[in-house]
Amino acid sequence: MIDNAVHPADTESVEALLRDELARGDAVAGSVLPILRYLAGTPHSALFGEEVLTRTRAMLADLAGEILDRLVGAGDGRGHSDGEIEVLTRAFLPSPVLLGHVHALALEWQLTESLQARAALDPVASPLLQGLVSCADADLRAAALAFLAAQARWCQVQRRMGLPLGELPAPVFDEVLAIVRKLVAAEPTLAERARVVEAEARSVYAAETTRLGLAQRVVRGLRGSHGDVSALRVTEAGAALFLTALALGSGQTRDAAVVSTQEGQGARLALVLRAAGLEPGAVEEQFLAIHPQAALPSGFERLAADHATAILSSSSGATGA
Amino acid sequence: MGQEGTILAHGVSDGDDRLLSAQEPLAGLQMRCGGELPGTIAVPELLEIVTRARRSNVRVSRVVNAQDGSDAISAWVEVQPEGAGCAIRVRSWQTGALPSEDGAVAERRRIEIDRHLAELTAYLDAGQRILAANSEGGELAAVTAAMNGAVGAVWTDFLPPETVTHQQPLHWRLLDGARVVVPGSHREWRVALIPHRQPGFEPAGFELLLISDQPAASADAVVPAAPVPPPAPRRSLVGRDLAPVLKQPIARIVANAETIRTRLAGPLPDAYAEYAGEIASAGTLLLGLLEDMADLEAVESEGFRTVPDQIDLSEVARQAAGILSVRAREKGIAIAAPGPDQQLPALAEFRRVLQVLLNLIGNAIRYAPENSHIAIELEAHGPRARVIVADQGPGLSPEQQARVFDKFERLGRSGDGGSGLGLYISRRLARAMEGDLTVESVPGEGARFILDVPFDPEG
């Protein structure tokens, strides 16, 4: 967008501005074809579905609103102009870590809702979690209860397309604060204010009490005490615990694990589940729960777990990172 | 200044996009959309274009779509920036029936809306005991903390229902929608309980939503509304006082009964589903009666007038036939409406002509035998434009024809859902538009109801 606040006489900066704008336009034009090719080739892709895009945008705008609240004050996030929100949102976009996380959250919510519609799976209290909140292991019970509260909060926030700063995983949290720091660096008073805001945010932030931190605690607790892989059964565990277990079991980041539940990623999902130690029959069941229309290649039942790991590690795909 | 052409209504807004004054039908829509006059524009699409016109200082003309609770409205509006605010001119105004929604969709929508409005949400186990509670703080912070400190306790200990004194908690269906007392809050609150269940099982848990229809007292005070003019002298009891208040609870009864009838809330013996069906249809009748009573008061009031517009009777007839086509098909009745190639320009209010035709065609469907025909014909009759609705029903004797337009006249029928007001109101409407509604019939050979309105020589 062309900023019209430039002084008309200042031709040099107008030219610079137009040149900038032109370069940005060229960049967009250059990425049109790959995007179009992908969308045209995968007609029902949920990865770039309208809902996912809307949620991605709205979550970034909500995060921007929260940060503006902290930086310049003004209540409930509705007080900022569209322009202010857009400046921050645009600063967020180049960050793969943040964008990938937000996209993964949108996809996770979509999976959560489709499991509820298709398999009557409670988005908050899955059967596994219901069992855990009354189990004998006091540590596990406390973790499960805390996770349940966080998951209930998350569902509510997702319905409103929100993204609270304090719920971000540590690398994303750091990234957001770094982006803000960089953005306001040129403006001394704002930079000073940003330092205060950052110190405040860091003083109350605790990665292990975020929803994702608590999910890890529950999954680790399950595996530790019972050698239990029940969190890998999505219809038992619910999407949230399943995705965390999938990430832990396969050594991927959780955001990458979310993408592997999408259409076109079926092979990766099946291999990851097998590599994480699920029996072939159970893999098929989970696979069908997530992709009701798809099928595993015949002969999959003969694939050994370590072989699955080997195939995965030889692929150059988006594991790790 | 674009004064040529017809203008149905004028309105004026100020620099904060508040509607300062408006003529009907704009004023009525503003009120039915939940706004005040004067007050911030409550019609979302109108607010959008007024804001845009005011900010960019450019005239904007566009179609505005809105719903007023019972009708879908589509209007062509011009917004001209003037002074700090805008002048609003309504050029055309069309109302049509809202697309009907089935019970499941309506129920889902209600849940979605409740979720977005909820200021406190809690998660309950199968026994309605608290697992977790969340709120955004404010006046609910204390009760949220108390609930989170008492995991395993029944939620009604913290949010006691207003009227129920039995031992709590009751069955969730009885508590869903109940008004509750929130300690430390002066607002009125209700709860919604959304069960989580596997089909065929009792709920395994619940989502509890705490909702208030009153906004929270906000720190950054809302711009104080300009002084509200004294209310217009009251002439109507049902139309202005009762109908708006009764409509919502009755609609809720119908929606809930539909939910039960269609077994959305769980399996149910057939007999109970039938009772629920009867409740739903009785509620629907009551709603219809209420609308008739409100219309009756409107047409009988002294100041009642219609807003004539250049309309095409052929178009109105097609719309009316379209709206009732499903009901007609259920009885195997074919409606022959005029084709799009036919035109009959007239000067009358679109909405009122549509209302009369819906009444006439609705009656024809109700009283004509199955697998018969209903014909809608158009005739230009000198200074009058004429629509005729002809059925193949039992027809009316001369003596019945004399009485059929009387108030509460049922011609001896009962139990079919009619109020005996439809034809009376329709004739009043026709006459208010400087036209008339008459009937020609021979017993055994069907009836022809004839609506006359002024012909539009310029059309």
Describe the overall structure.
- The complex is a heterodimer of chains A (321) and B (459).
- Chain A has helices at 11-41, 50-72, 82-92, 96-119, 127-132, 138-159, 170-184, 188-204, 211-226, 234-250, 254-259, 266-275, 280-290, 305-314.
- By secondary structure, chain A is mostly helical.
- Chain A folds into two domains: 13-209, no CATH class; 222-314, no CATH class.
- In chain A, helix 2 (50-72) crosses helix 4 (96-119) and helix 9 crosses helix 10 (234-250).
- Chain A is globular and about 70 Å long.
- Chain A starts with 10 loop residues before the first helix and ends in a 7-residue tail after the last helix.
- Mean pLDDT of chain A is 83; it is low at 1-6.
- Chain B is α+β, with helices and mostly antiparallel strands and 459 residues long.
- Chain B has four domains: 9-95, Beta-Lactamase, CATH 3.30.450.20; 103-211, Beta-Lactamase; 238-300; 309-454, Heat Shock Protein 90 (2-Layer Sandwich).
- Helix content of chain B is 34%, strand content 25%.
- Chain B has helices at 26-32, 44-56, 103-117, 141-148, 172-175, 238-261, 270-300, 313-330, 350-367, 398-403, 422-432, and strands at residues 9-13, 18-22, 39-40, 60-67, 71-82, 85-97, 120-125, 130-135, 179-180, 189-196, 205-211, 309-312, 334-336, 345-348, 373-381, 384-390, 436-441, 447-454.
- In chain B, the strands form four sheets. Chain B has a six-stranded antiparallel sheet, with helices on both faces.
- In chain B, strand 15 and strand 16 (384-390) form a beta hairpin.
- The longest helix of chain B has 31 residues, at 270-300.
- Chain B is globular and about 80 Å long.
- Chain B starts with 8 loop residues before the first strand and ends in a 5-residue tail after the last strand.
- Residues 219-234 of chain B have low confidence and may be disordered.
- Classes of the chains: A mainly alpha (321), B alpha+beta (459).
- Chain A binds chain B through residues 75, 79, 120, 122, 124-125, 127, 130, 133, 145, 148-149, 152-153, 156, 159-160, and chain B through 112, 115-116, 118, 121-123, 125, 131-134, 148, 151, 196-199, 204-205, 207, 219-220.
